[in-house]
Amino acid sequence: MKASYLNLWLLLLTACLQAASTPAPLALHPENPHYFLFRGKPTILITSAEHYGAVLNRDFNYIKYLQTLHADGLNNTRTFSGAYVEPQGAFNIERNSLAPAVGRFICPWARSDVPGYANGGNKFDLNRWDEDYFRRLKDFMAAASRYGVVVEMNLFCPFYDEAQWRLSPQNAVNNIQGIGKVARTNVYTLDKHGGLLAVHEAMTRKIVTELKDFDNLYYEICNEPYFGGVTMAWQRHIADVIVAMEKELGVQHLISMNIANGKAKVSDPHPAVSIFNFHYAFPPDTVAMNYELNKVIGDNETGFKGTNDTHYRMEGWAFIMAGGGLYNNLDYSFVVGYEDGTFGYHAKQPGGGNPELRRQLGILSRFIHSFDFLKMRPARELVKAGVPDKAHVQMLAEPGRQYALYMFGGKQATLQLEVPQGTYSVEWLHPQTGEKVPAVKISHGGGVLSLATPSYDPDIALRMVRAQP
Length: 469
Prior knowledge:
Elements: H1 2-21, E1 27-29, E2 32-38, E3 41-43, E4 45-49, H2 62-71, E5 76-80, E6 109-115, E7 122-129, H3 131-146, E8 150-156, H4 162-167, H5 197-210, E9 217-222, H6 232-249, E10 254-261, E11 273-279, H7 285-290, E12 296-301, H8 309-321, E13 326-330, H9 355-369, E14 377-378, E15 383-385, E16 392-398, E17 402-408, E18 414-419, E19 422-429, E20 436-444, E21 447-452, E22 459-466
Parallel strand pairs: 4-13, 5-8, 8-9, 9-10, 10-11, 11-12, 12-13
Antiparallel strand pairs: 1-2, 2-3, 6-7, 14-16, 15-18, 16-17, 17-22, 18-21, 19-20, 19-22
């Protein structure tokens, strides 16, 4: 009898130790849900990451890629599940990682023994899983975990035109079940899907089950659902599927919804959605429009502003300094064979990215993480005057204690800031180079404080904190 009690006690102790050693998944920070809690630390996700094909493209060396993100001080990446894949040459992207070579595409569904997939190899069996895919996915997640990279697992994406739909395993011509005989604009609906809804549900449950133990993870339901006929009812249904499956598994990961390009006011949000992502969100007006949601507002895709670093650095700084909690620059320098992010793409690439831009975004990450940012709020209204014509300014503040300001445009300015009485340490930073102007202490009697910037071109950042007595 004593041995039985001892064995039971040991089993309970082992279970408790295992539970204690398993880190909690990425969460909204309870003290300020505009930001994340990750592995016990307040976190903002900032990155410059590849075009979403790290898992589904068999030729992509994701270990080297994740090592590069880590070395650059970046902590986030997106990856697509394989429900969507692109043809080579799509969107004028050179060596697109989301467009695998013939026969090199892998996805959740297993290949059948029937030839005829549109991009090489056999058709797919939507009733069987490809275990090689899930081994690759989990190995990718484990590697990302080792390098401190949080993964956005993007489950679905609309078919922008017939070229993508022709390659989808969901298209009836590409699966042996012959389901999916629908227009591409009806795939992600609740009533016109031609039998595909059950496929969506099953794939969602399978991925959620396979990834249940990873803490460096959140799910995005669908990339750019405002294109291609994706309905809000379908998105809410997939959110419900995630929630129900995770409840059964005893875990809970954050869920993201991609809202709009640019800006939009979120109305009637699904209660399980904790991250509201936007694309091309400059100026970052959408942060203020949705700040009252008390959730993370993100800008998780950039592009179409040329290939120069300047805009994408500016977009990142402005978005984070407006109160955003996530910024992901779409980085086209990561391709097969150049997973260290050194590929030199052509001048008409629909976006940027390179080692220098990643270095600059690392400066942003270190800058914002140097603050006790959980206590800060957007405070653009404290800038009373002095902003040059056509310049853009954003500020976060905990009034009387800490201020973070970013300004783009102009060459020099004397800013007028509303600041309580006190002694402050004032330090200017050049976001492009990381060069700091030595900090000086300023005693202020209260009211409007005049601060002259150093000369800059084209942007400048300010760190001002109450000086220690």
